[in-house]
Each structure stands twice: as C-alpha cells, then as structure tokens.
Amino acid sequence: MNLYGHAGQWLMMDCGITFNSPLCTEAESKTSGLHKHDVVAADPWFISQRKEQLAGIVITHAHEDHIGALPYLWRRFKCPVYTTKYTAEILRRKLARDGQGDNIPIIEIESGERVDIGEFNVEWMLITHSLPEPHAFVIRTPAGNVFHTADWKIDLAPVTDKPFNAHAFKRLAKQNILAMVCDSTNATREGHSVSEQQCYTGLKQAVANATGRVVVGCFSSNIARLITLAKIAKETGRYFALFGRSLQNTVGAAKATGHWPDDLPVLDAFNAGYLLPKEVLAVATGSQGEPRAALNQLAKDTYRNVSLDEGDLVIFSSIVIPGNETSIENLLKAYKARKIQTLMADDSELPIHASGHPCQEELKQMYEWVRPQIAVPTHGEAEHLQANADIARLSHVPISLTGLNGDLFILAPEVKVMKQAVRSGRIALQQS
C-alpha cells in the first residue's frame, strides 16, 4: 500500500495482503511468539482519516500482495479504482464472492493510456512479470515526475503478454524523472533473472520421466506457469486439472479476458480421480505449506477428489518464501512418509521456477535507461532495499533514499525523509 501526495491530494498504489502472518515484522514475531493470522493487510489508518483527499486507487497487477485487501478495505476509502481488464476481472470475482457485486467503481485502463486522477497524471506502461497485464507507471505532477516500477523483470519470453520493450523505458531519460520507486525483491542476487519460458524444458523433463500422477505446486496467480504446464500435459498425453479454488478462479479470469489459449483444455478436478495415474497432471494450491490448501490435504490424504499413491510425484515450481521454511519442511516430511516423490526447484538441474523480479543486472539497466535524480527502493527487507540503493549509486543516480514503513519521503522541492511520520503497521482481516 503506497501513497503519493501532492497539492493536498493522495494517490494510492496497490492495496495488498499477506497470509498466515503476525501483526508485526518477521524478526519481532520470532522473539515475541505472537499469534499468526490467516489474512493480514497494511494498517490504512492514515489515509482512512483523510479519505476525502484520496483521489483514487491504482492497482498495478493482480497478485494478492497488491490487490487482495481491496474487497476488505474499500469501504474505508470509497473512491474510484483504476486498473486493467484482467486485474479488474480478478477483482470483480473477489467482490462477487464477498457479496459486494458492483459496489466498487472500477475504471478499466488500456496499456499506454494517460489518465488524470485528481492532481496526478498517471501513465500505464506495460512491463513483464509473472501474470497478465503487469504495469509500471509514470506519475506526473507540477512538482515532478515519479516512475513507479511495481513488480517487474526484463523477460524477453514471458509466455503471457508481449516481451519486454526496452525502448519505452529508454525514452524516460528525456522526461526528467525526479524519482524512481523500484522493486528490490531480488536486489541481492547477481546476474539476470530466468525467463519464464525457460521453465518449460525442466518441467517437461520431470513430467515426461514420471510414471505416476504428477502434481505441481506453484503460485495460483502465475498464469504463465499454468499455461506452460497445460501445454506439457497435452504434449505428454496427460489431462490437465486444477486443485484449489484460487487456481480455478485465476484460469477462469484468464479465459474471460482472452489470456488462456483455446487449445488447452482444463479437466474438472472431480474427474481426475477416475483417471489412470499416468494420465494426470494437476496444479495444486499451497506451495508455501498453507494448512488448508490442496497440497497439504493431498499430503494428509484428505483431498476429496484424488488420492496420491506411492511413486506419484509432487513438484514445487516455486521458491520458499522466508518465514515458510518450517511449513514446507513439514509438508515434505508428510509426502516422504507416504513414499510420494518430491522435487524442489533448488534441487532441479534445469529451471522449473522463474522469479518475477529483477536481479542486479536488470536493476542496473533500468537505472541507466531512466536516469532518475532520486532512487527510492521498495518491496523487500532492509538488506534488499540497501542493495538496491547501492546499485542505484553505482548507476550514477545522485540520491538514494531508504527507509521503513511509516517514513514520509519528501521528493520536492527539497529532498528528505521524515522518519515515522505516519502511523503504520498491520491489521488482521481474517483469523484462524
């Protein structure tokens, strides 16, 4: 949940959630032993007290950590929401489940459009990530122009949408970008991120060598990975199924907006239990060990549609998000006890997972193309933010500003950081 302020108005960029988390930082939770909550969001107190000054909310893409809190929190804001067709479809499906229907005014924007939202002129710039229609933004005001990257990577073969277009970002060097607010998730990683298309060979090899059922755990919002797996199922003589409501919802939205290929059928999960083991390739929710997700139910043999047997294979086409190590370890132990094979991304010789975030070489390139006066690293822990700031300095960005949630970054007319100027924190939206 990012806020940009100018001339007495505010613009919100994203409104996301996290899962199975405490109402504090991960470091604090380890020492305090505080209870974890199913769904957690950023505390919106500051902007809720100023909702008449909130010109609008822009959702950059459809990942839960960017969109998931909106159905819960919009009543506190009651302003227009701006996003693209696919993300709007995901949001409307969430609202329908929560009984809000058409209550929220959602304004659909096309790539490349420039829209006036109160005091802010906002330009949508198509970028590459791990799902359809991710965008970066130029936010223009008389006080200065800000380039907000949101989540991104440089991917020349992203599976969904168009390949990364460097020319669009090189042009920003001539547009006097005051500040670049940039994704830091992989700032500690050297080199270049793996292209989404590179996962195809490793995943196909693993599936082709399997003799029993194959179940793949991956993030349910990763339409590119789902399309790759559906193609592999077709090529290896297997039926493609989805285990978990969020996966079914994601593919449904992709079909409704033209992002799912017509020649890739999806089998109803109920029918997967009637197939021979060698005919099944399914994707399941719960790659982070979530207790109620399909992978956990399959490990406990409580999933209603299918039972896994000795010799079946579970592939984790995902990373281990820090904080989830114990949950995933317990999941692997449960499969091992039943003699069900597992393959983790780190143990695969070929890539079977690709991050959606830029590594160091990509960050360097973007800074050199855009040439901002100020770098504001975001989206990461302290070490990631500092690594991003270091890269910005090496890329000849004059000023780098790092801080914490609740800090107010003054970008113009003077440049400074007001520490803990705004009340921040986390609130529970759903509890166990």
UniProtKB/TrEMBL annotation:
Metallo-beta-lactamase domain boundaries: 1-192
Keyword hit for Manganese: no
Keyword set includes Zinc: yes
Entry keyword set: Exonuclease, Hydrolase, Metal-binding, Nuclease, RNA-binding, Zinc
Alphabetized Gene3D superfamilies for the sequence: Metallo-hydrolase/oxidoreductase, Ribonuclease Z/Hydroxyacylglutathione hydrolase-like
Pfam families reported in the protein's UniProt record: Lactamase_B, RMMBL, RNase_J_b_CASP
Name of the protein described by the UniProt record: Beta-lactamase domain-containing protein
